[in-house]
Amino acid sequence: MKSIIKNKIQIVVHISIWILLYGLTFYPILNDARPIPSDVFPKLIVIIVLFYFNYFYVVPEYLLKKSVLSYLIISLGLLIVSALLLNHFYEPKFPENFFMDRERTRGFGVMPYYRSFVSLGIPYVISAILRMYVEWKRNETLRLSVEKENIKSELQFLKAQLNPHFLFNTLNTIYALSVKKSPDTSEAIVDLSELMRYMIYEADKDLVPLNKEIDYIKSYIQLQRLRLSDSENVSLKITGEDRGRAVPPLLFISFIENAFKYGTDYKGKTYVKITLTITDVSVYLNVKNKIGVFREPTKNSGIGLENIRNQLKLIYPGLHDLEVDNDGKNYEVSLTIYQKQSSL
Q1: What domains sit in the chain, N to C, each tagged with a CATH number?
Q2: What is the pLDDT of residues 46-75, one digit of tens each?
Q3: How far is CA 24 from CA 19, 27, 94, 101, in A?
């Protein structure tokens, strides 16, 4: 369908060019009721042939392949030979006062050849410009398409990294419950199954309803509360209307996961405050945790956060603000996403 529309647009553009070129040529003649010069129609046929020969063959074979000198030589040769042949076989016979009473050069003078060369050359140059623009537009469309596919592939790669990373940490949580022989182990497995269902069926989409992402966060927090010895200072506050809003899946979870990972002190107390504020134009997430027992960072410990940073750059270029504050006692992340036009 798009190709048909593009073809129709190109046809309209070409017709418009010919109407403009020859409307300007014939209007003064017809307006003054003057006779049309005898060489106009043969010249029109030659112009059309040169126009499309240049458009479909000379420009693609030489100019687009960076053979500029060859293109110029061939083009000048075509124009000169065409002008000579036209003036040889179709010597123009102009009516009186056709050139505003200027003296006309006849016979083997230079002026008729010069006029023919210019009248052939202008449409010829227009055909080259038009073909160059069409090729540039086509290459730009292709470049944007490839760039979009690359971004999509990179996002899928980032999600593929994030999902096993999250699953590994969640299994550690359930393992800790089972070691303590906690009665909450079965509930944790049910919560994990809900999380896995979301990751399997929703995480590969570009956008998911915000309410589903919130449900996922709630399930994750509930799973974390089961393993904590003291979750009194764990809170989630959500304000605003989430209906009709959409976000990339798993966008917020790494910040929250990181807070639970480092927000437990040596006494087993956990302080994690999560605020999600939804407005008409933005979604704001604030995650704050006290820095508990220091853990030596491992090679893979930063995969989740780094992936989210990369996703934000790819999905929301210029449409997000991410601030991270670490004063040694508290770690705070503030993320604002300015909503795109698309929603669910």
Answers
A1: 2-143 (no CATH), 182-338 (3.30.565.10)
A2: 888 898 899 889 999 998 888 899 999 999
A3: 8, 6, 18, 20
